[in-house]
Amino acid sequence: MALTSATSNDPDLLKCFLNFPLSNIAVNNPVDLKWIHAQQNMATELVTKAAKYPKQYFNKLIDGCVIACHALPNEDCLTQWNISSTKEIVIPLLKRFHSILAHPGHKRSWMYIQVRFYHPDIRKKVDNFH
Predict the structure, then answer these.
(1) More confident residue, 4 or 107
(2) Rounded distance, CA 103 to CA 95, Å?
(3) Most CB atoms within 10 A, among 15, 60, 62, 85?
(4) Residue 82 clears pLDDT 70, i.e. is over it
């Protein structure tokens, strides 16, 4: 995915992709919006959560892709949101950050991932990641 002028005009979105080496291979690439969109569309867990918690789980149009996002309760979903990760995205996401950050350890990995992505079990996955 190339950063377009639409992407660079959105500072929150641009922040999500800064310092990420982008790959032309969309297979298991957790920073490729088309791959994220495809994984999210197969995840019934997001549909269930969006129906149960509509203020926390919502869609955003990002660079032409409809992406499921998450905001914590009482947070402004316009400015304080993360990309909603499915259980299928979490491990490729951890591998990608682990590689990009040069094997940073649990605390540093968690600091970077939680800024951009949300999954209820992601902290546990980071702590158990080898």
Answers:
(1) 107
(2) 9
(3) 85
(4) yes
Q: How deeply is 31 buried, as exposed, middle or buried, from its count of CB atoms within 10 A (0-12, 13-18, 19+)?
A: buried
pLDDT above 70 covers what percent of the chain? Answer: 75
Residue position matching structure tokens 């499915």: 86
Instruction: Report the distance separating Cα 20 and Cα 75, nearest Å.
Output: 26
pLDDT of residue 121: 85
Take residue 122 and report the two structure tokens written for it: 């992601």
Cα R_g (the chain), whole angstroms? 14
Helix residue spans in 20-103 (DSSP H) = 33-41, 44-52, 87-100
0.85 exceeded by the pTM? no
CB 93 within 8 Å of CB 117 = yes
Amino acid at 33: L
Report the side by side order of strands in the sheet with 57-62.
57-62, 65-70, 82-84, 117-118
Nearest to 125 by CA among 99, 87, 69, 96: 87
- Cα–Cα distance for residue pair 106/47, rounded to 1 Å: 30
